[in-house]
Give the backbone structure.
Amino acid sequence: MTFESIGLHPFILKALTEAGYTQPTPVQEQALPAAIAGRDLLVSSQTGSGKTAAFMLPALHKLASAPADASAGKTPNQQAQAARAKGDRPRFQPAQPKILVLTPTRELALQVTTATEKYGSQIRGVKAVSILGGMPYPKQMQLLSRNPEILVATPGRLIDHMESGKIDFSKLEVLVLDEADRMLDMGFVDDIELIISKTPASRQTMLFSATLDGMVGNMARRITKDPMMIQIASSASRHENIQQRVHFVDDLSHKNRLLDHLLRDVTIDQAVVFTATKRDADTIADRLNIAGFAAAALHGDMHQGARNRTLNSLRSGHVRVLVATDVAARGIDVPAITHVFNYDLPKFPEDYVHRIGRTGRAGRNGIAVSLVNHAEGVHVKRIERFTKQVIPVDVVEGYEPKKTASASRPRPGWRPGDGRKPAAKPGQRTFSKPGAPRKDGAAPSAGGAGGGYRGNRDDGRSAGRSSGRG
Ligand code: ADP
Ligand code: MG
């Protein structure tokens, strides 16, 4: 199948040629024809498989193919002037986007906007704008006043603008939820429902998610009509181009020494080191800088400007090692990232899949290394169950753990033989803190034990208890 045979608008074909895309990826092969035909889509497919184009090309195709509209390209002020000229009462005109993409994070929103600009570069007068938390209000007002056809937004900030009457969704034609599972995890479910309630029922809806089970599936059914389901890769076949391994470590100092050693691997082009907390991201980035690595931290406490600068330094190659938290690193798409290191294991197996997907982009190979305390073996098992892959355990000469991996099989109530309590180590983040509130714990839907999406997840809270699953 080719992009031409799918029948995409010539302007889009030209942009794709310029972007160097020669043929559609598997998810694009399935999604593009259905989306162009106007169908709703529910899509799960691995990271890096080209989902952005799978929704944005049909959306742009729709804009490019639409018959010229008298108000097209006019800013709200021009429209207001035209209305005044006709003798109508002048009034403030809200932006009336035709395409809305909701994303969980600012980084992902910016990435989608950049991709949209690339795919839409040959279509005259089509504007895409990101509406994000952390961006100054006046700047956003100015962007909205240009009446962009395409809005890419995180839910919270978008609602602020809707409530102040700056955006009107009555002309919306296409709604996209990108990384819907993550948006629900982050507690955006009510915001999403509110936004959707303001859009026309006639809209086309496309939902992308790592999973279509549980709460995402329920929402997906509510907001789509006769959707086409596209599930490209089962979790089992994910990331075959990424070589994964686990290194067991005895303690924090062992972990740090091993990380330093591994980062000196000459085959590393660029690397991302994942930490559980923002503080650790800062601390480790500082430590690596002192050790001579060009490292930088990226996390949610940083201002948008600082985050953008860090990401730009990563893209330009000035930063070689990015030390990041999950949410901050979501959606990072830098092909030169050859290695991902899990300094801490992620809370959820899904996050593991997203983390390692930062490498092996655009068809390249990648390496994903997890540094694991002996007590965390159970969490490795969970990841293995989720990905349906066994992650080989590796040992580096000179950095062998004192305990063997098999001796570290965790049992309920198990404690390391030396009596050391992992949770008490300063600076060390153990995998689970029983009773610690989840970030999204306040979401109303989080309550139903076992019934909802979260109830089905391995959320780490059960670690150390005998039941295993909620
Ligand atoms: P996903 O959202 O599934 O994680 P992206 O849409 O971010 O994936 O795309 C991943 C990478 O693949 C990007 O660098 C993108 O430019 C590239 N890409 C997408 N589609 C194609 C294609 N048909 N041919 C070549 N590269 C592509
Ligand atoms: Mg994506």
